[in-house]
Amino acid sequence: MKKPSPEVRQGSSEVGIQESLVVSKDDDSLTKLTVAELRAMMRRNGIQPTGRKQDLILALKKVSRNESAVQNSGNGLPKEAEDCLPDINPGQVVRQGRKTRHKSSIKFSVKDSQSLVQCVADTADKLQVAGKNSTKSKKQSKESKRSVDVIAQSSCFEKETESAKAPLTKNENTDCEESMIESTAPDKVLARKKRKTSEVIEKSNMMEGNAVGENEPVSNFEKPWTMLVHKKVQPGWVAYNPDIMRPSSLLETANIIKMISWNVNGLRALLKRKDENSFLQLAKKENFDVLCLQETKLQEKDVEQIKQSLLDDYDNSFWTCSVSKLGYSGTAVISRIKPVSVKFGLGIPDHDGEGRLITIEFDTVYLVAGYVPNSGQKLERLSYRVQQWDPSLSSYLKDLEKKKPVVLTGDLNCAHEEIDIYNPDGNRKSAGFTDEERMSFEDNFLNRGFVDSFRQQHPQAVGYTYWGYRQGARRWNKGWRLDYFLVSDSIADKVYDSYIIPDVNGSDHCPIGLILKC
Question: How far apart, in whole angstroms, are the C-alpha atoms of residue 382 and residue 221?
């Protein structure tokens, strides 16, 4: 006779989490299993099988007790939190390939589940405050917390069910899987993992200025920039949301010039994105007069070919490429307005080999499009940046200003204030936020008569223009504001709108815009 599998000998050929763990309470039946069989049982139930045989048995018994506590309490919520509940349906066992998962007995939409998590969590907090010395209150608070974990798991399952309509990213699926494993894992496993369950919660009141602290990660997956995400949020700060914070559009007959600046982080790669041509989308959406690009990473031999594949109705384009290091840096200006004159670089050989600056003279203003050198991962170019480049650029701008007002735009590689970076304390020694760079930015530009147009218009708005590719920074809106429109103080009052365009993808930076009255 064929030897039955551990599942069959336990009386459940289609074993789910509930069935296997209830049986595991029987000490005799568990001790009769081999280590391999115990580990197999743990894997099927989402528990990491580590330790000796006795450790495995204890882990199964502990999870069984937790599972039974939730089942025996009906919905697992204290009486005070029952008003939070939506409709209740019987529990289900969900099997996906080799993975067997227990779906929460509470069935509802992702949006409802996220509201329910917050409701139950608030109730738990109230119970804890109302009875710190009460054993019953502490027990209810623990039950509420356990229910939050179960509800959050349900949110993950709903996301998986809806993935056919709107597939989740790899990171989103990973977060759901890890949160399910953690909710049933022993304490030793929980101590080694960072809980991510709360990352599936979406707060509906983000746009009202409620801050997301470092221990409260949430996400609005469609518009993450509407979340106020900052580790040192101050009273009065709000998330920059262009949908509600930009002024009304001017008439087409208004005498204005509309400029856009964007660090594209490789123009050829951007143009190859046939499925999502962000470049054309930006042109259609903004209908700009002038577009300034940084970090094109082109070589001079590639420019003519690239120019042919760009935008119609923009007959004037000017390009400068790095010659000291091929395929590096590079800037460009594309304009429908014919300029009076064009100049490349600062006129200083030590600064002009990397294609970082283009000056366009229009009738009423100079436009300087620049890509300021990064200080480097090990700050190897910090001294060059603050002692040579910044002072030289500042003097150049002041010379231009003697003739006409100046607009400096581009990736200036500096988050000037703490409001301009998600994690200021963690980046004091990072390029772009060192004390030396911030002081240089202030001394060479702001203290010499140039105005940060975005900060002037939005003094308490947290708006980022750069998000690193690691750890899903853009998804959680953990960014930096590195891109600027600095204008001469004499025309600061002519700035109609200085804004960020966070919904345009294709680079680790997003575009920024300036509407200037002529």
Answer: 36
The DSSP code sequence of 230-275 is: -TT--TT-EE--HHHHSPPPPPTTS-EEEEEEEE-S-HHHHHT-TT
308 falls in which pLDDT band (50, 70, 90)? confident
**What's residue 18's pLDDT?**
39
pLDDT in the model for residue 478: 96
Q: What is the pLDDT of residues 268-296, one digit of tens each?
A: 988 887 656 788 889 889 999 999 999 99
- Surface-to-core class of residue 173, CB atoms within 10 Å of its CB (0-12 exposed, 13-18 middle, 19+ buried): middle
Spatial distance between the Cα atoms of 495 and 515, rounded to a whole number of angstroms: 6
pLDDT band at 150 (very low <50, low <70, confident <90, very high): very low
Span between the terminal Cα atoms of the chain, in Å: 92
Share of the chain above pLDDT 90, in %: 50
Average model confidence (pLDDT) for the chain? 76
Continuous H helices in 287-347: 303-308
**Which is more confident, 381 or 66?**
381
Q: What single DSSP character describes residue 5? A: P
pLDDT reported for residue 172:
41
pTM over 0.85, yes/no: no
Give strand ranges (E) for 435-494.
450-452, 461-462, 483-488
102, 230, 351, 509: the active-site residue = 509
Give whole-number Cα distances, 352 to 108, 118, 410, 508, in Å: 60, 55, 16, 25
Find the catalytic residue in 240, 366, 371, 464.
Answer: 371
Does residue 469 carry a catalytic annotation? no
Residues recorded for the chain:
518
For residue 5, what pLDDT is reported? 44
Asked about 509 being catalytic, the answer comes back as yes
Q: Rg for the chain (alpha carbons), in Å?
A: 29
The Cα 9–Cα 177 span in angstroms is 28
- Spatial distance between the Cα atoms of 361 and 226, rounded to a whole number of angstroms: 36
Phi/psi for 325 (5° steps) reads: -145, 105
What is the rounded (10 degree) CA torsion for 155, 157, 158, 164? 140
* DSSP labels, 47-105: ----S-HHHHHHHHHHHHHHHHHHHHTTTS--GGGGGG---B---EEEEETTEEEEEPS
Predicted confidence (pLDDT) per residue in 205-221, tens digit? 343 344 555 444 445 66
Q: How far apart are CA 213 and CA 58, in angstroms?
A: 36
* Predicted confidence (pLDDT) at residue 122 exceeds the cutoff of 80: no
d(CA 319, CA 298): 9
- Closest to 263 measured CA to CA, from 296, 285, 290: 296
Q: Closest Cα partner for 444 from 421, 412, 492, 466?
A: 412
